[in-house]
Amino acid sequence: MPKLIYKIVPQELWRTAESRGAFEGAAIDLQDGFIHFSTADQVADTAALHFSGQSDLLLVAVDGATLGDALRYEQSRGSDLFPHLYGLMPMECVLWVKPMPLGDNNKHILPDLD
Prior knowledge:
Layout: E1 4-10, H1 11-20, E2 22-23, H2 27-32, E3 35-36, H3 43-50, E4 57-63, E5 71-75, E6 81-85, E7 89-90, E8 94-99
Antiparallel strand pairs: 1-4, 2-7, 3-6, 4-8, 5-6
């Protein structure tokens, strides 16, 4: 499984998580009982399908290897395996946070994923 996984997060929600020292998840995560992540190959589609037209988003890169057994790859959209975290995400797992601005076509501009 890929080492790097990604979470798209509204900036305000992320700033709250930073002040608390852990990310509990967005509303959909709390509803589903796990934090939804994407791999590098999945993040553009996730942005288009679930965050279309939303501004003030951040892309958070996480070292999935540090999440232990709480991170599971499970079938979701299509038959792809998506990373799901069953528990809180500590800030120590975060490698970087980058903005995801909207381009002229109202689609998100993804940062370099390295």
